[in-house]
Amino acid sequence: MKLSRVTPFTLLAASCQAAYVQFQDCADTLTNKSLIPESFRAAVEQGRDGFEWRFDVIAGQADRNACEIDVGDVVPRFTVIDYGRDSKEVSGEIVNMSCYTSEWLGPRTHFTIASSFKRSTFLDTFRTTLEITSKDNESLSCIRATLTPAAPEPIRLLGLWLPITTFALTCIVACWPAQQTTSSLASKNGRITRAIDLLAYIQFMFFSGALSLRYPGFFQPLVGLCSWSTLMLPAGPVEASSPYARAGVNDGIYEHNGTITGAPGLELLTQMTGSPVKPQSWMNTFVLSLIIFFFLYLSSYISFRLNSRDSPSNLTLATIGSQLRDRYWAVVRLFLSCFMLPISAWATYQFLDDQIFGYRNSAMAILILIVLLAGFWWSWTRDSEMGSLVIQSPGRLNKDPESGRQYYALVLFSLMFLRGSVIGGLQTYTSVQLGVLLGCELLQLLAMTFWTRFACFISLAGILSVSRLALFALHIGFVPGVASHSGRMLVAYIILCGHVVVLTCIFLLPAVLDMAHLNMYGRAVTMSDADRGAPVREVPRPLQRAQTDIEGLQKSKSAKTRDSNSHTRASPDFNQLLLEMIPKRETNNLLIGPTSQKALTEFSEDLKGRDNRAEIEKNPNVFSDSYSRLINPSSSKQEIAPVSDISGNLVCHLFSKENLAICSAPRHHNLDYPINQYFISSSHNTYLCGRQVAARSKLKGYISTLSQGCRSVEVDCWDGRDGQPIVKHGYSLTTSISFRSVIETINNYAFFASDLPLWLSLEVHCNPAQRDIMARTMLEIFRSSLVVEPLDASSQELPSPNQLRGKILLKVKVTQDPEPLQEPLAPEYLNLDEPGEDIESHDHQDLPGDLLQSLAVYGASRRLPKDAEFDTHRNFIYSVSERNFKKHTKDNCSLESSGRQHLVRVYPDPNRVDSSNFDPLQCWRHGVQMAALNCQTDDFYMSLNQAMFHGSSGYVLKASPQTTQIQLQVAVLMARGLKVLTGNCPVHVKMKLLTPDTISQKARTAPTLLQDSDVAFDENLEMSVETNYPHLTFLHWSVKTMSNGRSMSITSGTAKVENLREGYRVLPMGDASNNEGRLLCKISVKST
Asked: Which residues form the PI-PLC Y-box domain (predicted)?
């Protein structure tokens, strides 16, 4: 049957409850007496036994005046089909009839028909057929309609305004001005992401056909004021022919109205807007997209210019062009994040009268798709972090381009395009469409898990993805034949409640809390710090003068000279400020006038610290070096110019690499004790470069770890399919690499950073044949570097690191008690001097029974026994998990005891799937030699491990516990080179004194406004702690700022207290390259 007209209406009657109506003209033939329906409205009032219905019908006649119809000759009859029940006929009567003449349409008749049937329930949907006949039973008109009683007004308002209000609020929060710091930028990106995620979720509700109480039919797609697509909706009814009947789908929208029979819902939109059948609708879509794009482009550029600190006089065509290009890529990412899904859906939805995929529309669709894909590809190749705009918490992504995580954005946008294409191109294949879209939701969840680890499931982004998958899976109940009508109604209510919960809990409440925090933070920036107690300090006068003198300084020759040095790029006023700070602190040594050489010597002692006091007294000129010329050679030895007159070379020296506060080597570094009396820098799952599940095994892990001086690496060995052992993380969906390539890589980098002995911790899951291949491979590649026999068979002590320099030792789990010391291998298996000689050429039967186990000369491994009952006759390496270690030490018992020749290795629990680390400080406290950490994770505990082994080549001698009172005084003067966005924001320095047996002591400066990347504090901090482990006491420092009312770290560093150099020193920030800034302090350490 031809579908001639499809028009949705919403009737709001003063004394009646509205009913949503979908209708079509069901007349088979047209005569000169036929009434052609043009409008059909309904209202319902509750009666005693049912509901009283009132219908308003407006109709006209093709060749006659409709006002000439005799109302007495018209008889209305209803056929009501109640879902789950038999159909029944209900009579009705015409209670009113009027006639009016339209200027454009001519005479029209208006019927008001009353009837009574069915006690309706909340949002119950049923169908009816209204036949208007004459008294002689001649059919005058036929109207088939779907009726849905309107929901209560609160529910209607909720369905309309909840998405609108939530989206408006998230947009306001996303655009809220905030301090331009690294942490606040990440927070702002998260708020922008939330707005984009909400828009995507509204699109998800729209295309999945849910949460609509504004249009007829139960759960019609969300097409209201909150849908940007309705901007293309022309005024008045849209006449559109449906090709679905010819495609095998009965009655188009009436059989596929939203979720009633399973269609995801694009059909209603396209039939309302005429998009698939009117060529001008394609142009409307294209023009509207361009308008939105250029609006975003203009807004982004204006916002960038308003926030830019560049003066207008410095603008050139080149700089403007560069800024416009930068803004273009940002807007492309934003536009595609928001609108790739709907545009790709419209581009693939092709029906035109009797043709499917009409030529003109297909050409337009292909053009749009090409533009979309080209824009996406160009933007992605320009910026691999494009995905940061479509996922929450972008900081979770690793920024290392080699990690492969940049492809997360590619996966997300590809799934957007696939969803749109499936929604638009598979409208007549409901089950296939539903299955593919469900698969897309599952793939997105798996991609998030793969690239952002399992921690995503406790984030809002992860909860949102799980919710989308669960709610969309419920739509299976709407596929024809799966569930009854009552079952579909129940599923629909569950979906509606689910969407309300998601909108409220994931979007609305966080947006409200963010707005409250931003409002409070706006006041806190000028009134209080993170604790709302310490006032923000004003910028010193020299810094205020910098604003007025900056243009002159840029033109001066001296400023250009200073800019050539990476440590003196700050404004000269900072140098002057520092030169004013130091004399004020050294009033006992320095005077305003000329300074004696004795006073200079005392001043030099404070600058150089007490490390070189004797050398300074012998030769005061030692303070002059290649980096600073503090003493003018032409000056008198008895009189030297005031410190305030000394050039900026003093500042240059203070911030130089030679003045770092951390010693390059430990003060006491004796390597002649047995190896079990040392802490050893150890790695866990070295072959992994990310999480423990669904990750890639790479040789890069060994290269990076060994290059940093690690002296114990782990190799997990498994049977390979080709008979050769492989290395991977078992039962965790990780990729594998060949055992031989791992051994070759270790051999190449084993002594790259240190020549002290290297331990190979082998976790072997191979059969005997491949175990033998492993042993042969290591003998062949390591050759003389591999320890295959005891250095001194008569000694009961383990050898020292000095005795084992350049050697590789194996840790292998033994299955039975071995002899006290293994017999050495036969000489023919050790003399592999010729490069081409292979140990496999020897007779296999002449080798020991378990060659691999026999190679564990000093590294026979066992699990830690219960109650720490160690073997007193033989050295072992006892392996214990983090959890079992805590059980063994809960009674504060140590794992170390003199006279026992053993080592202990503690490794992270298997449930640390995100490769996080445990606290190694407690392991060192209990004498654990090998605290194996996930070196691929750069967290606080990893920085603690790096501080422990800084400059030690991977071995640190243990020290006996000794009660010591440590007093640490740190005068925080100035920070330079902080990686923060240009702009003023309050920052403060926080320091923590960490010990394994006491609560950490903390101190912090008052918040001070940051100028560009430099800030002056000039504040004294003091901390004191009594500990039994002074050799395990660490200082952790960090520069923090405020973000959303919370203190967020910008950069940080860690060092052992015993490795600190006293005097005026710089504390490095960030990684080993110190490229995240430096903190100048005056350090004093007293131990009693």
From this structure: 877-958
Q: Are the beta carbons of 344 and 424 closer than 8 angstroms? A: yes
* pLDDT score of 984: 63
Q: What pLDDT does residue 795 have? A: 81
- What pLDDT does 792 receive? 85
Q: Would you tell me which CATH number, out of the four given (2.30.30, 3.30.1220, 2.60.40, 3.30.1450), belongs to the domain 7-150?
A: 2.60.40
Predicted confidence at residue 304, as pLDDT, reads: 64
At 186, the amino acid letter reads A
Token readout for 151 is: 């929901």
AA identity, residue 221: P
Closest alpha carbon to 989 in 935, 934, 1067: 1067
Amino acid occupying residue 368: I
- The CB density around residue 586, as the number of other CB atoms within 10 Å, is 18
* Residues of the chain where predicted confidence (pLDDT) is lower than 50: 1-16, 83-84, 119, 122-123, 180-183, 210-279, 309-313, 351-357, 383-404, 523-572, 589-595, 610-641, 643-645, 647, 818-823, 826-847, 898-899, 982, 1072
Report the candidate in 371, 378, 373, 384 with the shortest Cα–Cα distance to residue 414. Answer: 373
pLDDT of residue 255: 31
Rounded CA-CA distance 207/421 in Å is 12
**CA 761-762-767 angle, 5° bins:** 170
Same fold flag, 7-150 and 675-833+849-951? no
Reading the block at residue 497, the tokens are 């409640």
Architecture of domain 964-1087: Sandwich (2.60)
> Tokens at residue 893, please?
């018992």
Whole-angstrom distance, CA of residue 1024 vs CA of residue 1027: 10
- Domain residue extents for the chain: 7-150, 155-512, 557-659, 675-833+849-951, 964-1087
pTM of the model: 0.54
- Which DSSP helix (H) or strand (E) runs through 973? strand 964-976
Distances (CA, A) of 433 to 57, 355, 429: 37, 21, 6
Closest CA to 451 of 516, 395, 404: 404
Give, in order, the Cα–Cα distances in Å from 1043 to each of 182, 341, 517, 983, 1017: 9, 33, 9, 15, 20
Mode of pairing for the β-strands spanning 876-881 and 902-907: parallel
Beta strands (DSSP E) in 103-192 are: 106-116, 126-133, 139-149
- Sign of the alpha-carbon dihedral angle for 975, 979, 982, 983: negative
Q: Which residues are catalytic?
A: 684, 729
At the second CATH level, the architecture of 675-833+849-951 is Alpha-Beta Barrel (3.20)
pLDDT of residue 308: 55
